[in-house]
Amino acid sequence: MSNYRRVRVAGATYFFTVNVLDRKRIDLTRPEFRQALREGIKRTRQTLPFKMDACVLLPELMHCIWTLPPNDANFSARWAIIKRNVSRYCGDSYNGSLSPSRQKRKESGIWLQRKKFL
């Protein structure tokens, strides 16, 4: 099993890169993805606020810089809400060719899993 560590500092500023699963089929700059991302960010901020200092949206990935509130380092919960929103809004078009293991884990066909390094 992979053993990796992330620094979690409450109130810190973090840099993220989030990739799509299939670069040939998925384009994050399409209007439906942009709208789903906006809605996901809006919904997330209602319960788990954060400041988005910068965001670059490219067809196959996005880079973001976030600053979390003091006493809060839970960026993973925020990403889960955002990704879930995009998957629910756009996922039906991209879930047809999922591997059996991704289907078993109820994963979407949009997001690439984070690589785990030893």
Characterize this entry briefly:
The protein is of the alpha+beta class and 118 residues long. It has helices at residues 31-47, 75-90, 100-104, and strands spanning 13-19, 51-57, 61-67.
Topology (SSEs and partners):
Blueprint: E1 13-19, H1 31-47, E2 51-57, E3 61-67, H2 75-90, H3 100-104
Antiparallel strand pairs: 1-3, 2-3
Helix pairs in contact: 1-2
Any key phrases for this structure?
single chain; 118 residues; alpha+beta; Alpha-Beta Plaits; three-stranded antiparallel beta sheet; globular
Structure description:
With 118 residues, the chain is of the alpha+beta class. It has one domain: Transposase IS200-like (Alpha-Beta Plaits, 2-Layer Sandwich). 32% of the residues lie in helices and 18% in strands. Helix 1 (31-47) runs antiparallel to helix 2 (75-90). The longest helix has 17 residues, at 31-47.
* Fourth-tier CATH superfamily name: Transposase IS200-like
Specify Rg, calculated over alpha carbons.
15 Å
Q: What spatial form do the alpha-carbon principal axes imply?
A: globular
* Main sheet record: 3 strands, antiparallel
What amount of the residues lies in strands? 15-25%
Helicity level: 25-40%
Strand segment count: 3
Number of domains: 1
Low-confidence runs: none
Strand order, largest beta sheet: 1-3-2
The N- to C-terminal Cα distance equals: 8 Å
